[in-house]
Write a structure and sequence with these properties.
The chain is globular and about 50 Å long. Strand 4 (109-110), helix 6 and strand 5 (129-133) form a beta-alpha-beta unit. The longest helix has 16 residues, at 2-17. The chain has helices spanning 2-17, 20-23, 37-43, 66-71, 84-89, 115-125, 145-156; strands at 30-31, 50-54, 60-65, 109-110, 129-133, 139-144. With 157 residues, the chain is of the alpha/beta class. The chain has a 3-stranded mixed β-sheet. The protein has a 3-stranded mixed β-sheet with strand order 4-5-6.
Length: 157
Amino acid sequence: MLQRKEELSHNIRYISKVPVKLVMDREFLTVRPEDPLTVLIGKFTSEETSAVVVDKDGKLLGFITMKDLLHFFATPRRYSVVGLGLLKKYTLTRASRVEDIMVTKPITIHVDDNIGQAIKLMTETGKHHLPVIDDEKKVHGLLEVKDIIRLIRIVAL
């Protein structure tokens, strides 16, 4: 039992040092800010749970997850105070665009960071998806919890 604990401890230390760029998904869903929401919704599948919003040069402009999208279709609470932001939220139409709902300052991780830093960031913020960017904000990939779990499964078993 003690030997198994030591092996797991060693594996956990190893996992935390693995570079993000080795684990991230290089094939990820991208959309443009001017894309209609219908295009975004059509691109979401069971495999794709988030979308990176980029400009024509591949630089990060925003981020959207399925959960973010759901917030815009939730009914208002009873006795809610209605402000302009809330009214805008409930006026989404077929003409609404990605830029109307995207998170404009998403939490990201740098392409040169390691999995230990990613795990810390995810646990502190509660985020399950991190766009992986460089110093110029160009998106290189997407790191999700499932990618880290896959690595843990490979190393721990």
